[in-house]
Design a protein that fits this description.
The protein folds into 3 domains: about 55 residues, no CATH class; about 220 residues, Endonuclease Chain A (Endonuclease, Chain A, 2-Layer Sandwich); about 160 residues, Endonuclease, Chain A (2-Layer Sandwich). It is about 45% helix and about 20% strand. The chain contains 18 helices and 17 strands. The strands form 2 sheets. It has a 15-stranded mixed beta sheet, sandwiched between helices. Helix 9 links the parallel strand 3 and strand 4. The protein is globular.
Length: about 475
Amino acid sequence: MNILGHLGTIYVVSEWIIRLVMLIVVPFRRSPEAAKGWLLFVFFLPWPALVLYHIIGRPNYPRWRRERFAKLPKAFEGVTERIKTLTAYQEPELPENLKQAATLIQNLGRFPNVDGNSVELLSSYDGSIARLVADIENATGHVHLLFYIFADDRTGWSVIDALARAVERGVACRVLIDALGSRTWAPRVLDALRQRGVAVHLVLPFGLLRWKTARADLRNHRKIAVIDGRIGYVGSQNIVDADFKPGIVNQEMVVRVTGPVVLELQAVFVADWFLETQEVLETPDLFPSPVRTGHVVAQVLPSGPDYPEAGIGQLIEALVHGARRRVVITTPYFIPNEGLLHALGTAVLRGVEVHLVLSKPADQILVSLAQRSYYAELLAAGIRIHLYRDKLLHAKHISVDRRVSLIGSSNVDMRSFVLNSEVSLILFDREANTELRAEQERYFAASEELSLDTWRARPLTRKIIENIARLVSPLL
């Protein structure tokens, strides 16, 4: 046998070794859906699958990052005690069917439910930025911003200029921006902020030649602003123009909150600041004695690879299982796991009205194709699907039975459930839920509702492409 023959034999044998080893390795600590997706990839393309698995196959941060996170409880012992001292746990008033979901939230998160908050839902894109800029202009102590995308466009410069003026007044301004989400603008934004005296850091920087690099697919997807420890912002909107992607205009949802729960948003920020800088921020002015500004009971839930027990996916399933009347899920990206699919279908059988509000315009083609592959079975189960026209509906929120609302940065897909660092604000309040429901009704009016017969009549080629995309959806 010539040398080429020997090499061919070695290559074939190596492929089978990879298949057999990965058959053992892949299912460990991985959902059945994700395991099937990886194993299918491994079966057809063993070597490319092995390389990709080494790069993004395990939802774990590098050791140095995990070691820093392990230091958090001790580093922030004073911060944790101060939050407990300054805030009082408040059991939300809920019917029996939702009490278990509230208990789950309490056990998943590291923060208590607290009363005395006031919330304002901001659905105007430019309006929410204007409100944030106004609050920065009135800041007296500090401004903390954590965003997945921070651009140096018109929107970004309005925030940069406000931060510069705040620094001139003696306000301490700190900014965290995700290295991948802001990669197009990061060098210019970092330079502009640093020249103006703002302390700014990239979150999870990555690169082949970096000593302490992060994985490219594990990102900090949070959007948080905290001003003077008394005003907080959380939601889906980044600091970038609404039309930053050609041909697409984003529609968002942001919550402006005041009251004790702002201290929980502050704690998420200072924890992320420590993870990037190893600097502990615990001065008293960062956690001032809260002032009751309303009657809303609320809780912050951080989630992501740093918080393996704080699963936003588990919470969404529990809320759906607990629903008795109505569930509305609004998200731009919907790639559910089997547990959520079962929960949604079971809810309809129990008589619950279930609505999905999704976006008709798409900015991620492969994800959109995979998402569409679920529509037929969802519609057949009695779930109503509304496709929002004209704009990319990037808002991410859920309402359950007029009693519980969840608004934040998390999509309903495996990336947000497992890979991304996310943050959600849970509101146990009828009035807030009613306000959110009014916004959802506006979505319905601006959407096309799918029918099962029409959807099934789409061309066969589309069905095939969508279902191929679905096969790799656990990897998305």
